[in-house]
């Protein structure tokens, strides 16, 4: 990962505005020597020196064994990078994309950023994984171009190949996407999408395939790859002209494809003509010579240029082909091929391009890098402003800084950086200390409070590693003295934490507020008593009882004991009881100025709460120790007795009648109290076992209430006579009868209520009879008679046709188990299978046996009259009809005494229920054709089968649409689906909400008819609530939107122009865009920050407008400076330095460029005659056209 110093237009403008023209006198000017101005090229071996070297291992005939894991390296130039964001390298979209591709393909991908901001990508893995990964990388990280290639329609199938294998192979090989028109599409154009290089490869391969299949003439010329550039010509112009002249299609493999074969297709005459022309070029260029030069690998990219343009320019200018080694090879040899007299100029251009940029490395400790860069890049920014063409790169973890750019500027930048490093090493220091990772968060403190204090106090930088790094190394950097002080404080904190202990106390949450006290006064006293202990109470919303203590071990123990003592006192003093006092006496209990109640509180040490004057409650609540509360109650009751004729009496009523006398929610006892002038009736607490009921109030009213209470108790006693009876649990069902028929007859005859034990009761044999004594005795007698008969076991038999036996014994004897449960545990034995016996034996109580025989006969009659009815319900509804665990079907079979059989589920692939869709159109609704898997069979009596059929059809769910605005769907769904889930559970329906991208204003509700209707009403009610909430939110949101604020950077020198005279311009902008725009005050720390406030859309529009104004002003300034350069007055030498300088007859000729010790000054050499047309021929008339730079147009 590297950090890069970036030159922006703003920083360049600021730098340029700070520069001043420097005047250099003629005497001060230094005249360089010829060798200094034109240094000779370094001497290399003679051309072709390596021709005699033995062939390498790669050229041997033995084919090496292919490795199972391969590595491919390829490059994405800056101009072709899809993501050029300014985020830290390795953290942007490129890294995310590569991570996804690695997970999907299994290949390993490494990215690195070149000095020219191009991207180098290394992919390692198995061949198939590498090819797939490369294709995806190119598609997602490199800008995609597209091109079309036309081949005959009948050749398309050969491009596709068998099962599309050829096309897939071609796409992987070239990392492109190839779209071939459908057979019914008349177009013959094949579209290729991908990088420029990939498109060229794919196009070449497709044309080769087409040429092989073409019935016209196809000519393959195997010509050495080295001569292809001469045949293609610069920028492919020669081959294009040749193709246009002859009409033949010429396919030359791209430079990246190591193939010698050139394919020419077309009409025979055209192909022959093209072949002759190409051979002529080849024969002519074979006479050319070559030279080899060594150039550093790092400089090759400057020779190649953007998209290989520089190589093409050299070929165009000199006719020399420059052969570059592959970028992924280690070779540094460049071969120049061409005419001997042109090789010199071409070589000069190659060296010029290679030496146009140099790279220098400066050694600096890695920990100093951020100080060299400076706060917000100030230090390094100053250098890049002065030397904008120098690229400075810092590499994390490495003790080097790379500088790249023009030689002179790189040397200046190197000197400045070395000066900064020297200064920093003198006044900066660092230390590293190992601290256990568990203490890191305590060192940092809440919101970084501790570490920020240390940084500020000692003027140091402290780096604590992230938890994910699993490292205990803490680094402190800064002033040497501050570093040592900060280290000492950190170690002291660690020492304290090592002796620290955490203890949890369980304290009921209701006591938390009491322990904390009003405004935290009580807990402050505890903290003052134990200053080294941190006491943390849980948030009230958490409903937690855990109070955490943290601090030195001894102090935590002392604090825990102290708090436990407080808690024990609170628990002891939290006893509470209520005393009913007549409302008219409350003011007497309080006393004048609260004297009475205050005295009682102080003397009994209790808390006494009285109801408010407006309250109808008569209860006074006393809280404190139990003994103190009882004493306070007596004191309050004595005051009431003294004030009025209050009588208190006790009535003895059996405890078992208390609940029935109180009634539901106290309604019965409340009616007596209201009827008797508001007397107070107090029942003993439940579970106390006491029979004493206390009545308190005016004497007359107490007697009246006592009489009513005893009368009510007597009625309850009479109607609450209870008797108990023992009977075996297996008899209970028989005593109850089918549908409760037997027990209902007993109840009707006697009027008593008979209670059978529930499955959870411990006494399973106990039957309780409740009611009037006479009725209870009669019911008890009847039940005892029934139980006695059940105890008399008899054995009987009956004849059952063999064909019906299976019905009784199937399903593990379910019917026999039901008979045993229903008829007092009667045992029914059927003969063994295959014995052909019809005799069935029944053993049990006489009445049970008779009833069982009768029931078996009914079942047989049902079987003999049994019919089968089919009901058609689409298979997709079967699960809904069955219900959870088949409960609905079980209910129907029990209620209607039928058997229901569902068909086997049909595989979804065997047939689809919905009608087919063709060409994207929904087919018209076809008549429903039942399938085998849709038919449910019902067996039983005809009339019962019909009832069961109706019950089944009623269970088929229906679907109805409810119109609900798309904007409300997410609120109806709720957080993590909680809202929609609650509605589905409440109404027992299924609610389907369409996908968000469809934006449909409808919600589908599926379920039973009644449930769907209820769900619709509930859904519409919810919609009304949401619409009301939405209106409220909209008002709040609209107000919030108006406060949307964005801060932008605008060069301060443009502020006056944007504001305008007397603020006219800025006022118009504010008015046009309905925003508020604030500029910084003079002397502000951030003079370039401009704040825009308003609605988000209007703020964005206003920012765009301001940026456009800034750009216009910047262009205006640049144009003014450019014009000023031509309007300067002539120099004192009279040269043509300004406009019209050449016309001034008084001035002498321009001095020009002067060097010393030139070759033509040597003896025997004559200087060239500048006035000679032969030595200096003219190139046309007029002003010579401006030559385009090999590096593209200048930016500044």
Automatic annotation (TrEMBL):
Cellular component GO terms held in the UniProt record: cytoplasm; high-density lipoprotein particle; nucleus
Disordered, as annotated region: 903-926, 1135-1196
Any GO MF annotation of the entry: mRNA binding
Location of the protein in the cell: Cytoplasm; Nucleus
Coiled coil: 769-796
SMART domains noted in UniProt: KH
Sequence ranges of Gly residues compositional bias: 1135-1150
Keyword set, alphabetical order: Acetylation, Cholesterol metabolism, Coiled coil, Cytoplasm, HDL, Lipid metabolism, Lipid transport, Nucleus, Phosphoprotein, Repeat, RNA-binding, Steroid metabolism, Sterol metabolism, Transport
Xref: Pfam families: KH_1, KH_Vigilin
InterPro entries noted in UniProt: KH_dom, KH_dom_type_1, KH_dom_type_1_sf, KH_Vigilin_N
Keyword field contains Cytoplasm: yes
GO BP annotations listed: cholesterol metabolic process; lipid transport
CDD domains given in the database record: KH-I_Vigilin_rpt1, KH-I_Vigilin_rpt10, KH-I_Vigilin_rpt11, KH-I_Vigilin_rpt12, KH-I_Vigilin_rpt13, KH-I_Vigilin_rpt14, KH-I_Vigilin_rpt2, KH-I_Vigilin_rpt3
Function: Appears to play a role in cell sterol metabolism. It may function to protect cells from over-accumulation of cholesterol.
Protein name: Vigilin
Organism in which the protein naturally occurs: Scophthalmus maximus (Turbot)
């Amino acid at each position: 990962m590297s950090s890069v110093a970036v030159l922006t237009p703003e920083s360049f403008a600021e730098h340029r505005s700070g520069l001043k023209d420097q005047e250099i006198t003629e005497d001060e000017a230094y005249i360089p020597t010829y060798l200094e101005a034109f240094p000779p090229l370094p001497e290399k071996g003679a051309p072709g020196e390596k021709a005699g070297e033995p062939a390498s291992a790669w050229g041997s005939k033995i084919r090496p064994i292919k490795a199972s894991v391969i590595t491919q390296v390829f490059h994405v130039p800056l101009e072709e990078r899809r993501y050029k964001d300014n985020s830290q390298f390795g953290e942007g979209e490129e890294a995310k994309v590569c991570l996804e591709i690695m997970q999907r393909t299994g290949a390993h991908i490494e990215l690195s950023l070149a000095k020219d901001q191009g991207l180098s990508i290394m992919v390692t893995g198995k061949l198939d994984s590498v090819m797939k990964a490369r294709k995806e990388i190119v598609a997602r990280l490199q800008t995609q171009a597209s091109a079309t290639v036309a081949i005959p329609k009948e050749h398309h199938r050969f491009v596709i190949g068998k099962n599309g294998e050829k096309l897939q192979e071609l796409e992987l090989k070239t990392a492109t996407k190839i779209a071939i028109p459908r057979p019914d599409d008349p177009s013959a154009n094949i579209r290729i999408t991908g990088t420029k290089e990939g498109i060229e490869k794919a196009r070449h391969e497709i044309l080769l395939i087409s040429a092989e299949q073409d019935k016209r003439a196809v000519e393959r010329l195997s010509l050495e790859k080295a001569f292809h550039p001469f045949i293609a010509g610069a920028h492919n112009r020669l081959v294009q002209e040749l193709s246009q002249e002859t009409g033949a299609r010429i396919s030359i493999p791209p430079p990246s494809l190591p193939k010698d074969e050139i394919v020419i297709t077309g009409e025979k005459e055209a192909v022959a003509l093209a072949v002759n022309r190409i051979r002529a070029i080849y024969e002519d260029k074979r006479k050319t010579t070559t030279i080899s030069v060594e150039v550093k690998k790092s400089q090759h990219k400057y020779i190649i240029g953007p998209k290989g343009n520089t190589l093409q320019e050299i070929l165009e200018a000199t006719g020399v082909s420059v052969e570059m080694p592959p970028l992924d090879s280690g070779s540094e040899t460049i071969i120049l091929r061409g005419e001997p007299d042109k090789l010199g100029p071409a070589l000069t251009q190659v060296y010029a391009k290679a030496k146009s940029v140099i790279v220098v490395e400066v050694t600096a400790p890695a920990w100093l890098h951020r100080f060299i860069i400076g706060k917000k890049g100030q230090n390094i920014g100053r250098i890049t402003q002065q030397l904008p063409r120098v690229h400075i790169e810092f590499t994390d973890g490495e003790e080097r800084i790379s500088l790249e750019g023009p030689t002179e500027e790189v040397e200046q930048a190197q000197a400045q950086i070395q000066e900064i490093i020297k200064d920093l090493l003198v006044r900066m220091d660092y230390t590293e200390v190992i601290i256990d990772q568990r203490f890191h968060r305590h060192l940092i403190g809440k919101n970084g409070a501790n570490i920020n204090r240390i940084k500020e106090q000692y003027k140091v930088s402290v780096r604590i590693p992230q938890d994910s790094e699993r490292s205990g190394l803490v680094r402190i950097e800064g002033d040497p003295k501050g570093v040592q002080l900060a280290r000492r404080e950190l170690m002291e904190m660690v020492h304290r934490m090592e002796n620290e202990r955490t203890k949890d106390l369980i304290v009921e949450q209701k006591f938390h507020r009491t322990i904390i006290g009003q405004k935290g006064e009580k807990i402050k006293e505890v903290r003052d008593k134990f200053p080294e202990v941190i006491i943390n109470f849980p948030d009230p919303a958490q409903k937690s009882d855990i109070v955490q203590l943290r601090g030195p071990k001894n102090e935590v123990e002392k604090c825990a004991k102290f708090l436990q003592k407080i808690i024990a006192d609170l628990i002891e003093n939290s006893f509470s009881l209520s005393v009913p006092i007549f409302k008219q006496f409350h003011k007497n209990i309080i006393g004048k100025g609260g004297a009475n109640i205050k005295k009682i509180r102080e003397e009994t040490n209790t808390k006494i709460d009285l109801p408010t004057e407006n309250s109808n409650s008569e209860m006074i609540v006393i809280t404190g120790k139990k003994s103190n509360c009882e004493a306070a109650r007596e004191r309050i009751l004595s005051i009431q007795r003294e004030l009025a004729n209050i009588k208190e009496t006790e009535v003895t009523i059996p405890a078992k009648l208390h609940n029935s006398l109180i009634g539901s929610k106290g309604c019965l006892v409340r009616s007596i109290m209201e009827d008797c002038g508001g007397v107070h009736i107090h029942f003993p607490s439940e579970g106390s076992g006491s029979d004493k009921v206390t009545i308190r109030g005016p004497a007359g009213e107490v007697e009246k209430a006592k009489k009513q209470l005893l009368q009510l108790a007597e009625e309850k006693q009479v109607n609450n006579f209870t008797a108990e009876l023992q009977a075996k649990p297996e008899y209970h069902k028989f005593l109850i009868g089918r549908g409760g028929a037997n027990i209902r007859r007993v109840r009707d005859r006697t009027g008593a209520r008979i209670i059978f034990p529930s499955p959870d009761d411990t006494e399973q044999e106990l039957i309780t009879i409740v009611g009037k004594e006479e009725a209870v005795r009669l019911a008890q007698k009847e039940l005892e008679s029934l139980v006695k008969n059940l105890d008399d076991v008899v054995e009987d038999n009956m004849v059952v046709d063999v064909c019906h036996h299976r019905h009784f014994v199937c399903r593990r004897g379910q019917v026999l188990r039901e008979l045993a449960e229903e008829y007092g545990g009667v045992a029914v034995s059927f003969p063994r299978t295959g014995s052909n016996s019809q005799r069935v034996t029944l053993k049990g109580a006489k009445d049970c046996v008779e009833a069982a025989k009768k029931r078996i006969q009914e079942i047989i009659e049902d079987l003999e009259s049994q019919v089968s009815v089919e009901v058609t319900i689409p298979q997709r509804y079967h699960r809904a009809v069955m219900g959870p665990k088949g409960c609905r079907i079980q209910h129907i079979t029990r209620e209607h005494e039928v058997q229901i059989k569902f068909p086997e589920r049909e595989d979804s692939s065997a047939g689809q229920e919905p009608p087919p869709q063709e060409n994207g159109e929904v087919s018209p609704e076809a008549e429903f054709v039942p399938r085998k898997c849709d038919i449910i069979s019902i067996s039983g009596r005809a009339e019962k089968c019909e009832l069961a059929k109706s019950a089944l059809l009623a269970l088929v769910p229906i679907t109805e649409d409810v119109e609900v605005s798309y904007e409300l769907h997410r609120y109806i769904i709720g957080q993590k689906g909680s809202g929609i889930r609650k509605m589905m559970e409440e109404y027992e329906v299924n609610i389907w909400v369409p996908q968000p991208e469809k934006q449909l204003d409808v919600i589908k509700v599926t379920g039973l008819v009644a449930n769907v209707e209820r769900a619709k009403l509930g859904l519409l009610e919810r919609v009304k609530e949401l619409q009301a909430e939405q209106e409220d939110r909209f008002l709040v949101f609209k107000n919030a939107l108006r406060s949307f604020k964005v801060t932008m950077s605008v060069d301060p020198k443009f502020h006056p122009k944007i504001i305008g005279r007397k603020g006219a311009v800025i006022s118009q902008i504010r008015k046009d865009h309905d925003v508020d725009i604030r500029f910084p005050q003079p002397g502000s720390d951030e003079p370039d920050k401009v704040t825009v406030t308003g609605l988000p859309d209007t703020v964005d529009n206003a920012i765009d407008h301001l940026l456009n104004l800034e750009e216009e002003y910047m262009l205006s300034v640049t144009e003014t400076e450019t014009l000023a350069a031509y309007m300067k007055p002539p120099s004192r030498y009279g040269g043509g330095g300004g406009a019209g300088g050449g016309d001034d007859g008084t001035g002498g000729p321009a001095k020009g460029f002067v060097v010393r010790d030139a070759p033509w000054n040597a003896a025997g050499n004559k200087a060239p005659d500048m006035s000679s047309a032969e030595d200096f021929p003219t190139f046309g008339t007029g002003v010579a056209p401006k030559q385009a730079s090999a590096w593209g147009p200048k930016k500044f």
